[in-house]
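User: Could you go from structure to sequence for me? I need the amino acid at each position, not a summary. Structure tokens:
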């Protein structure tokens, strides 16, 4: 049990850092290589060609899927950086965490790193079933454990933020902004890459099932709204718990309503700009999107 709590704390700390937005050192990428994708330009470090091609393919696929689904395409530049180049192009302190340096520039790591490794405790300290799931899911072609599969997919969550920011959507609540990006991520994987669902869902599900709300300082959506920045900066484990709950909620929404839930949510957030109280917001989500989306706030405290 202690090993699960320790692992959960690492996961929550890592997920919480997604909120952090750093300042870019320079917009000059002349020391990086350029790979032009169909929908995205990728600049990458000397040794990162294979990872750059993989991430370009992933992001191109995501952008194409949503262009055909909601008729919108943001402008995003992707940097795939080695540990050596990381500090030259971002002030973000943790190598390995996907993040934006501005609203258009998304940064990901090209190499396995200590941050990813910290997410995985010794398997012999975990329950047998969990250890088996991890060893079968988070492994590279050489049989070595790595969290690359998980962190590569978090880049899709970040693309979701580019869609809603550049699409000028009105989020109404901070938790809706995060639910939106988690729905964006889960919907794409479920529709186009279902073989990757275990890599996407095992960790968030474990966090949700293993963390006791009574151990958290904040647990309601009202508290998330009122203390969003404080929770992210001073209570990162708590913030990560919110993110994991919103991700599992996104999975439930997809299972119940499919891709249409995301399409309808996009349209609702695009066309409804007036302030809404909690009751009106829940009614709007239930009638215009799906009851499963309205149930996120309505059933949060159950």
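Assistant: Here is the amino acid at each position, in order:
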């Amino acid at each position: 049990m202690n090993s699960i709590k320790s692992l959960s704390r690492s996961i929550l700390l890592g997920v919480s850092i997604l909120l952090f937005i750093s300042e870019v050192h320079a917009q000059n990428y002349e020391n990086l290589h350029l790979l032009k994708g169909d929908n995205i330009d990728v600049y990458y470090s000397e040794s990162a060609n294979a990872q750059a091609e993989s991430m370009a393919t992933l992001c191109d696929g995501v952008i194409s899927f949503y262009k055909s689904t909601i008729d919108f395409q943001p402008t995003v530049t992707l940097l795939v950086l080695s540990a050596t180049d990381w500090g030259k192009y971002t002030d973000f302190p943790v190598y390995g965490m996907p993040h934006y340096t501005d609203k258009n520039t998304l940064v990901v790591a090209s190499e396995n790193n200590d941050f990813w490794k910290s997410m995985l405790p010794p398997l012999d300290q975990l329950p047998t079933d969990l250890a088996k799931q991890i060893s079968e899911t988070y492994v590279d072609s050489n049989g070595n454990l790595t969290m690359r599969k998980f962190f590569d997919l978090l880049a899709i969550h970040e693309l979701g933020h580019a869609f809603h920011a550049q699409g000028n959507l009105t989020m109404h609540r901070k938790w809706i902004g995060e639910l939106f990006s988690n729905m964006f991520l889960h919907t794409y994987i479920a529709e186009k890459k279902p073989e990757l669902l275990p890599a996407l869902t095992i960790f968030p599900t474990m966090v949700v099932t293993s963390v006791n709300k009574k151990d958290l300082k904040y647990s309601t959506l009202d508290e998330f709204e009122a203390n969003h920045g404080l929770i992210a900066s001073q209570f990162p484990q708590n913030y990560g718990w919110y993110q994991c709950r919103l991700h599992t909620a996104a999975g439930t929404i997809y299972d119940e309503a499919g891709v249409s839930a995301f399409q309808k949510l996009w349209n609702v957030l695009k066309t409804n700009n007036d302030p809404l109280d909690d009751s009106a917001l829940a009614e709007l989500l239930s009638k215009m999107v799906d009851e499963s989306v309205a149930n996120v706030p309505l059933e949060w405290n159950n």
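One structural detail worth keeping in mind: The chain has one domain: 2-298.
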